[in-house]
# Entry
Amino acid sequence: EFISQMAQFSSLEQMTNMASGFGKLSSVLASSEAQSLLGKNVEVVDQGNALFGRVEQVVRGEFPLVLVNGKFYDLEQVSVVAE
# Structure
């Protein structure tokens, strides 16, 4: 029974490590996506209001930010991308 419990703990640890790895991968992909928007025209939805502007700057990180019309927005707020 002890060996069975150790195997379960080992399996749980591996799943926790995988979840952490997927979180890091997701963060890298989001940062890469944000960087690809640099210089492009976007529509940003902020509190139900849509605004248009050019992405002037990108701040990388777990939750990337884009600078549009002098204000930073979360990447999740970008709804449309155009050349």
Q: What stands out?
A: The helical segments are 2-36. The chain is about 40% helix and 35% strand. The longest helix spans residues 2-36. Residues 15 and 21 are 10 Å apart (CA to CA).
